[in-house]
Amino acid sequence: MRTRRSIQLLAVGAAALALVVAGCGSDNSKSSSGSSGSSGSSSTPAGKKIKVGLVTDIGGLNDRSFNQLAYQGLKRAQAQLGIDGRVLPSKSNADYVPNLSTLAQQHYDLVIGVGFLMADAMDTVASKFPNTKFAIIDVDATTLKHKPKNVEGLLFKEQEAGYLAGYMAGLYMKDKGGTTIGSVGGQKIPPVDHYIAGYQAGAKAANPKIKTLNGYSQDFVAQDKCKEIALNQIQQGAKVVFQVAGQCGLGVIDAAKEKGVQAIGVDADQAYLGPQVMTSAEKHVDVAVFDTIKEAQGGSIKGGQDTIFDVKTNGVGIGKTNAEGSKYLTEVKAIQRKIASGQLSNIPDTVGK
Fold first, then answer.
1. Pair 151, 135: CB distance under 8 Å
2. Among 36, 90, 178, 231, which one is most buried in terms of CB atoms within 10 A?
3. What is the rounded distance in angstroms from the CA atom of residue 30 to the CA atom of residue 320?
4. How far, in Å, CA of 109 to CA of 84, rounded?
């Protein structure tokens, strides 16, 4: 396992500290040990002028979550590293292959795909353009069908971030005397289920009496679909609802506001959406994008393997807390330290049927 050089992460813009992350690494994975992630006044001298293209998943750049974070990482690389950047949004799955191919045909030095749903398209395009460097978020590069050696996987242990948010929710419910919490996923895919599995485990660790409700909207865009599921869970007694559905999940946070219960955001720090947001389970997609671009600029990017972002490397975590969440922050931070040290491990990353 190759280890990336250590770096201190500071979240950019809306993405504050967090620790999420995913996925199972493999023996040839490399582990991220942080990143040159300082934002604000400090800057990195511009290096070699490379061209970097970013292909978003459906949901677009204004999803206030996953795609937006990736875009922030690209913009930061433009400002601090002097690279040329271009974004091609995907409105549907049918756009993945054309968008990736367009950037490869235009001789971009690095092409980054955002999201698990892009795995097959990435495999197809990377295999056709072996001289182009690619990276893909939330996909284990070693699992791609044709095993292209020019793709680097950027994985997160989302279950660790979910566990922290769930632990906070469990403590809250213990104090309030409630027994039920809910979660709404976009689709039953690994990155989504990692979050939810960790959330459920954390809540039960803090409060063994907790009952968990979970549903999937089968959509990452339509907010009304997620809101409907959340409202149903609230009707069944859920006093905390966790959104893991990108732009669609904003409907979950709206449902919480409407019914006077607590919400938990995802990916980015979504505290700005209202005082009902207890905290957010974050993963630093912006940092992963920035670090990978810097790696490509220095000529050290290598395909056929993965970089893992987790709590230990400050790749995932939780965001700001509201008045209710702040009551439990000390206890949650203690759990965070246990995860980082390895004292607390084997957090579940799969959700039962």
1. yes
2. 90
3. 29
4. 10
pTM for the whole thing? 0.85
Please give the share of the chain, as a percent, with pLDDT higher than 90.
81
SS (H, E, C) the chain: CCECCCEEECCCCCCCCCECECCCCCCCCEECCEEEECCCCCCCCCCCCCEEEEECCCCCCCCCCHHHHHHHHHHHHHHHHCCEEEEECCCCHHHHHHHHHHHHHCCCCEEEEECHHHHHHHHHHHHHCCCCEEEEECCCHHHCCCCCCCEEEEEEEHHHHHHHHHHHHHHHHHHHCCCEEEEEECCCCHHHHHHHHHHHHHHHHHCCCCEEEEEECCCCCCHHHHHHHHHHHHHCCEEEEEEECCCCCHHHHHHHHHHCCEEEEEECCCHHHCCCEEEEEEECHHHHHHHHHHHHHCCCCCCCEEEEECCCCCCEEECCCCHHHHCCHHHHHHHHHHHHHCCCCCCCCCCCC
The predicted structure's pLDDT at residue 10: 35
- 193 has pLDDT over 60: yes
Summarised one tens digit per residue, pLDDT across range 99-140 is 999 999 999 999 999 999 999 999 999 999 999 999 999 999
Q: Can you read off the two tokens belonging to residue 233? A: 């869970």
Are 137 and 291 within 8 A, CB to CB?
Answer: no
Bridge partners of 154, per DSSP, are 137, 307
Beta bridge partners of 88: 55
- The whole-number average pLDDT for the span 136-164 is 97
pLDDT digits 0-9 by tens, 61-99: 877 788 999 999 999 999 999 999 999 999 999 999 999
pLDDT surpasses 70 at 257: yes
Spatial neighbors of 326 by CB under 8 A, at least 6 apart, are none
Structure confidence at residue 62 (pLDDT): 79
